[in-house]
């Protein structure tokens, strides 16, 4: 598969945007953790770790992309979609950890949510990879079957986040509940992009349009689902810190809820 | 388009100046945040993030420039003005956030200013790119039209900063008001350079003079609008910290207003 000059530039710039967004969200969040109460700092540090791992993978993908499609393309080099799956294998469970951690629920409730969410996330990523990498493990062109397998844990995660987690939201203040509902909507909207991008590139033969749509879709979804998501987690932690501690609210010029 | 030896050296050195300015303003501001009261630290961290993102892009632009025009120029490599637009897409909204954040206004006022400023900034950058990259999306040589489109949100941002923000300045002390007025003048003067640099390179055919004028114009404007601007934000935060807290003023040897 070849890329046109315009297609090359689009993917090139979107991967570079990915590096800049991930890298500086990471640095910002590691410094910003001191702007919330200690009990919320783990959630912020996990968020920073998620974008940090993603920054590393975007550097690799950017270099790999140039090696395959750039002006000095290396013969026999192939574009490795595995970077994305290794990234997600590490970052998606951590995203679920930061979401649960920022709520500061009782330890037993946290554990019960995470023992269900984390294996489901690992399964979702692991089952998607053979399809996206066109490994043809079961039969030729079996990508749609792997996509289907991967959708089952995906739906289970959404069920846990919307139904099970919903039950523990009642203990939060009204503004925090609103922000958490926005957070879940962001998660639903961005996670929904992944299967669509997957389907775009599922055709029997790799096509330029499918490749570009997949790379742009995955990258924009990643930036929203990791950077914007992490900043919203930070914002929830700031709100809850101000609610928990009037002195903090005063020192940080945060209005009391 | 070819570059003369002198033209090459000018752009090369100005891009390197960009790296040095952005990188060390970032590092300085991340450490300097502890020299203001906690409620102003978010503004300083956002300033540091702005120059950090710009440092990343200046490293990329410098390498890309050498790849295209250097002694070992790569066949088929092109100079990617997209780096600047991706940079501005991230940093211009953040510059507006740091400006609003340092004023420590009421949360409702902050929100009302930012929901108008940030979409306008994104629109301004997004509409400028097709012209500057000579994508000819509408017709051949349509750069001036995109420049015109981009000017509309640009003027709106200036209106909000000068008229709407002006109303909330009355609550600030006289020295802080003076410094904020200087800050707005710096913003007006540096942001005014971008359309001029854009016009320089708008000719039907890419010319050496137009290219050099654009790169030097964008780089100097960037350094003033991000590094000097960020340091002025820091200075406002120091003044306001000393005004808010006599103990801070004494410990930091800052005169009281």
In short:
The structure is a homodimer of 257-residue chains. Chain A has 257 residues and is an all-alpha fold.
List the helices and strands and how they pair.
Two copies of one chain form a homodimer.
Chain A: H1 5-32, H2 38-69, H3 82-102, H4 107-132, H5 143-168, H6 174-191, H7 193-200, H8 208-244, H9 246-251
Helix pairs in contact in A: 1-2, 1-8, 2-3, 2-8, 3-4, 3-8, 4-5, 6-8, 7-8
How would you describe this structure to a colleague?
2 copies of one chain form a homodimer. Chain A contains 9 helices and no strands. The first copy, chain A, starts with a helix and ends in a 6-residue tail after the last helix. With about 260 residues, chain A is mainly alpha-helical. The interface of A and B includes residues 251 and 254 of A.
Distance between the termini of chain A: 56 Å
Largest protein interface?
Answer: A-B, 23 and 31 residues
Average of the residue pLDDT scores of chain A: 93
Order of helices and strands of chain A: HHHHHHHHH
Q: Spans of chain A with pLDDT under 50 lasting ≥5 residues?
A: none
Number of helix segments of chain A?
9
CA radius of gyration of chain A: 20 Å
Beta content of chain A comes to under 5%
Structural class of chain A: mainly alpha
Helix content estimate of chain A: over 70%
Oligomer: homodimer
Shape of chain A: globular
Number of beta strands of chain A = 0
Question: Major sheet of chain A: size, sense and barrel closure?
Answer: none
């Amino acid at each position: 598969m070849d890329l046109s000059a315009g297609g090359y530039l689009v993917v090139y710039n979107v991967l570079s945007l990915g590096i800049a967004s991930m890298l500086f969200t990471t640095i910002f969040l590691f410094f910003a953790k001191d702007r919330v109460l200690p009990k919320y700092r783990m959630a912020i540090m996990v968020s920073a770790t998620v974008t940090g791992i993603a920054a590393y993978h975007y550097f690799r993908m950017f270099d790999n992309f140039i090696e395959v499609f750039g002006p000095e393309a290396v013969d026999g080099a192939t574009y490795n979609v595995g970077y994305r799956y290794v990234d997600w294998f590490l970052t998606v469970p951590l995203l679920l950890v930061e979401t649960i951690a920022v709520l500061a629920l009782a330890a037993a409730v946290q554990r019960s949510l995470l023992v269900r969410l984390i294996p489901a996330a690992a399964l979702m990523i692991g089952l998607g990879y053979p399809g996206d990498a066109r490994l043809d493990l079961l039969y030729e062109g079996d990508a749609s079957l792997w996509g289907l397998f991967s959708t089952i844990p995906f739906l289970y995660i959404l069920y846990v986040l919307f139904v099970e987690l919903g039950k523990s939201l009642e203990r939060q203040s009204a503004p925090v509940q609103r922000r958490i509902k926005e957070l879940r909507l962001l998660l639903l909207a961005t996670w929904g992009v992944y299967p669509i991008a997957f389907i775009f590139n599922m055709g029997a033969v790799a096509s330029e349009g499918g490749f570009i749509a997949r790379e742009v879709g995955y990258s924009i979804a990643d930036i929203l689902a990791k950077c914007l998501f992490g900043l919203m987690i930070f914002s929830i932690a700031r709100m809850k810190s101000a609610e928990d501690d009037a002195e903090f609210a005063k020192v940080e010029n945060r209005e009391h809820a």
